[in-house]
Design a protein that fits this description.
heterodimer; A: alpha/beta; Rossmann fold; 2 domains; seven-stranded parallel β-sheet; five-stranded parallel β-sheet; 18 strands; 25% helix; 30% strand; B: alpha/beta; nine-stranded mixed β-sheet; two-stranded antiparallel ribbon; 6 helices; binds flavin-adenine dinucleotide
Chain lengths: 310, 250
C-alpha cells in the first residue's frame, strides 16, 4: 500500500504545501504518489517529480479539468483510493472542498486540519477555534486527512520520480465552472509568506489601510493580512482575511496592527514564530498572543517603524 | 422550490470552553449553547429565497438530542416553515450526520440543501461535502453569494487569492460562509410565533443506518503555550529586539 497526495498548483507553479505534505507522509514508511488534476500539467508534474521522497507522479489531464471541480477530482480520487492506505491534501480551500467528498465516496471519515501526526492514524487537530487541541485516532481502513501544511518540514529536491498519465473520467454533469476573480498583488502569497503585516478595523478606511500598512509590508517583503472586521468594513479585500474563516498563516514574523485579538483571528495566526502587537489599549487580548508588544497609537507607531527599517 | 436547511447546536461563539480535569473531553455541562453561526447564514439565505418568491417552503433540520429543539425554534423564528428533529443520542461525526441527512432528504425531496460551511465546535468542515457525495449531487461550498437561475444555483465561492463562480444544477448542496448575508435579528414576537410552528421528531434509529464514530477521541489539551509578551517602550526598542533577540530583521 502507499500514500496518495492530492497536489495543488497555481499558474503552473506547484504550491509549497506539496513538499510539506511529502515530508509529512514519510511517517507511514510507504511509497508516496502525487496526484495532479488539471490541464497542461507538464511543469507542476516536473516539479513534483523532483521532490525527495516521491515515488511517482500521476497526472489526470483534460480540457474540462482546467479549473478542477470537487465533483471531478473526488471521483478521480475515489476511483483509485482503494489502492491506497493514506490520502492527504492540504487544509486549503481546495483540499477542504474536495477531500471530504472523496472520503464519503470511499465510506471513510475524514480527519481535517491536522497539525501533528503523532503516529500513523493518530492525529492532533485544533477544535473550538484553536482553543483546544484534540488527539484523535482513526479506525478507518483508508486514512483520509487534510494537513495544515505549514506545520510540517519541507522535503528537499533533486529527485526524478516517474510521471504517468491517467485517463480522465467523464466530466461532472452537475456543476459548471463560470469565472474567477484573482486579486492581483506583487506581494508574496499570504499562506506561505515569511512576513505578514496585518491590520484591524482601527485603520478606519481603505485609504489608511493602504497608506499606513503597505509601506511597512513592502519594506519587509511581506504580505498584507486583515481581520474580519476590517474586511467587512471594506478596508481590505476578503481574500486577505486571516482567521477561522480566512487564511491560516505561519510566518516568521507577524505584525498585528490595531487588532484586538479575538479567538477567531488568533486561530489564523497562532502558528506564527514571532508576533508583534501594536495597540493603544494595554489590555488588548492580542498582547497575550504576542512576543513583543508596543502600546501606542498605530498612526504614529507604524510610520515610525517603517522609517526605522533599512 | 423546497429548501432544506441543516442546523447544529454548538457552544456559543462567545464562550471559551474548558477542558475536563482528566483531559478526556471539553466540559459541556452548563455551557451556553446556540445555533452554529454559519448555519444561521444558511437559514437566512433560505428564508430570503422564500421571501423573494423563489422558494415556497423552508424546512429546518437538526440532528441530535431533544435539546437541539432550541436551535430549530431559532430557525423557525427566523422564518423557516417547519422543523424536523432527527433524534439521536449517539456521538455523531460528519460521515454519520451526512448519512442520516441523506436518508431524510430522500424522504423530503428538497430541491436545495443548505448548511453552514463548518461547525465551530469540532471545527470540521466536511458534512456538506460528504452529504453531496452520498446523494450524488453537485456542491457549492464556502459560498458568499447565491442566485437561482434556470434550475441552477449560481454561487460565488471564496478561495485563496480571490473568488470563483460556479453553477450547480439542482438538486444541490450548498454550504454558507459568513459573508453570504447578515442574519436577521430574532425578535421576541417572532420567537413566540415560532412556538406555534410544528417540530416533528423522527427517531434516527428508524433509518437503521450505522453511524458509529470512526474516530476515537484520545484526549484533549490546551494549545501549546506562548512565552509571555515582552512590552517595549518605543519603536526603537522594538526594532532593536527584533534584530538582536528575535533575529527576524537584518
Ligand atoms: C463565527 C465567526 C467567525 C469569525 N471569523 C473571523 C476570522 O476568520 N478572522 C477575524 O479576524 N475575525 C473573525 N471573526 C470576528 C472576530 O470575532 C472579531 O470581531 C474580529 O477579529 C475583530 O477585528 P478587529 O481586531 O479588527 O476589531 P476590534 O475588535 O474592534 O479591535 C480593534 C482594536 O484596535 C485597537 N485600536 C483602535 N484604534 C487604535 C489606534 N489608533 N492605534 C492602535 N490601536 C488601536 C483597539 O484597542 C482594539 O483592540 C469571526 C467571528 C465569528 C462569530
Amino acid at each position: 500500500m502507499s500514500v496518495l497526495i492530492l497536489a495543488e498548483y497555481d499558474n503552473q507553479k506547484l504550491k509549497p504545501s506539496v513538499a510539506q505534505l511529502v515530508s509529512a507522509a514519510q511517517c507511514w514508511k510507504q511509497a508516496v504518489h502525487v496526484l495532479l488534476v488539471g490541464n497542461d500539467l507538464a511543469e507542476p508534474a516536473r516539479d513534483a517529480a523532483a521532490i525527495t521522497g516521491v515515488a511517482g507522479v500521476m497526472c489526470v489531464e483534460a480540457p474540462h479539468l482546467q479549473h478542477p471541480l470537487a465533483e471531478d477530482v473526488a471521483n478521480i480520487i475515489a476511483g483509485m483510493g482503494r489502492e491506497y492506505s493514506v490520502i492527504l491534501a492540504a487544509h486549503s480551500a481546495f483540499g477542504r472542498n474536495v477531500l471530504p467528498r472523496a472520503a464519503a465516496l470511499l465510506d471513510v471519515e475524514m480527519v481535517g486540519n491536522v497539525v501533528e501526526i503523532q503516529a500513523p492514524a493518530t492525529y492532533v487537530r485544533p477544535i473550538y477555534v484553536g482553543n483546544v487541541f484534540a488527539t484523535v485516532r482513526s479506525n478507518d481502513p483508508i486514512q483520509v486527512v487534510t494537513l495544515r501544511a505549514s506545520r510540517f518540514d519541507t522535503a528537499g529536491t533533486g529527485n526524478h520520480a516517474e510521471i504517468v498519465n491517467l485517463a480522465p473520467p467523464p466530466a461532472s454533469a452537475r456543476t459548471r465552472w463560470l469565472s474567477e476573480i484573482r486579486n492581483q498583488s506583487d506581494r508574496p502569497e499570504l499562506g506561505s509568506a515569511s512576513v505578514v503585516v496585518s491590520g484591524g478595523r482601527s485603520l478606519g478606511s481603505a485609504e489608511n489601510f493602504e497608506s499606513v500598512l503597505s509601506p511597512l509590508a513592502d519594506k519587509l517583503h511581506g504580505a498584507l493580512g486583515a481581520t474580519r472586521s476590517s474586511v467587512d468594513a471594506g478596508f481590505a479585500p476578503n481574500d486577505i482575511q486571516i482567521g477561522q474563516t480566512g487564511t491560516v498563516v505561519a510566518p516568521e514574523l507577524y505584525i498585528a496592527v490595531g487588532i484586538s485579538g479575538a479567538v477567531q483571528h488568533i486561530a489564523g495566526m497562532q502558528d506564527s514564530k514571532i508576533v508583534v502587537a501594536i495597540n493603544h489599549d494595554p489590555d488588548a487580548t492580542i498582547f497575550q498572543m504576542a512576543d513583543y508588544g508596543l502600546v501606542a497609537d498605530l498612526f504614529e507607531a507604524v510610520p515610525a517603524l517603517t522609517a526605522a527599517l533599512p | 422550490m423546497k429548501l432544506l436547511v441543516a442546523v447544529k447546536r454548538v457552544v456559543d461563539h462567545n464562550i471559551k470552553v474548558h477542558i475536563k480535569p482528566d483531559g478526556s473531553d471539553v466540559e459541556l455541562a452548563n455551557v451556553r449553547m446556540s445555533i452554529n453561526p454559519f448555519d444561521e447564514n444558511a437559514v437566512e439565505a433560505a428564508v430570503r429565497l422564500k421571501e423573494s418568491g423563489v422558494a415556497h417552503e423552508v424546512v429546518a433540520v437538526a440532528v441530535g438530542t431533544a435539546a437541539a429543539q432550541d436551535v430549530l425554534r431559532h430557525a423557525l423564528a427566523m422564518g423557516a416553515d417547519r422543523a424536523i428533529l432527527l433524534e439521536s443520542g449517539d456521538t455523531l461525526q460528519p460521515l454519520g450526520t451526512a448519512k442520516l441527512l441523506k436518508a431524510l432528504i430522500e424522504r423530503e425531496q428538497p430541491d436545495l440543501v443548505l448548511l453552514g460551511k463548518q461547525s465551530i465546535d469540532d471545527d470540521t468542515c466536511q458534512t456538506g461535502q460528504m452529504l453531496a457525495a452520498l446523494l450524488g449531487y453537485g456542491q457549492g461550498t464556502f459560498i458568499s453569494a447565491l442566485e437561482m437561475e434556470n434550475g441552477e444555483a449560481i454561487v460565488t465561492r471564496e478561495v485563496e487569492g480571490g473568488s470563483e463562480r460556479i453553477a450547480v444544477a439542482l438538486p444541490a448542496v450548498l454550504t454558507a460562509d459568513l459573508r453570504l448575508n447578515e442574519p436577521r435579528y430574532v425578535k421576541l414576537p417572532n420567537l413566540m410565533m415560532a412556538k406555534k410552528k410544528p417540530i416533528q421528531t423522527i427517531q434516527a434509529a428508524e433509518f437503521g443506518i450505522d453511524v458509529s464514530p470512526r474516530l476515537a477521541l484520545v484526549n484533549v489539551a490546551d494549545p501549546p503555550a506562548r512565552k509571555p509578551c515582552t512590552m517595549v517602550g518605543s519603536v526603537g526598542e522594538l526594532v532593536e529586539k527584533l534584530r538582536s533577540e528575535a533575529r527576524v530583521l537584518p
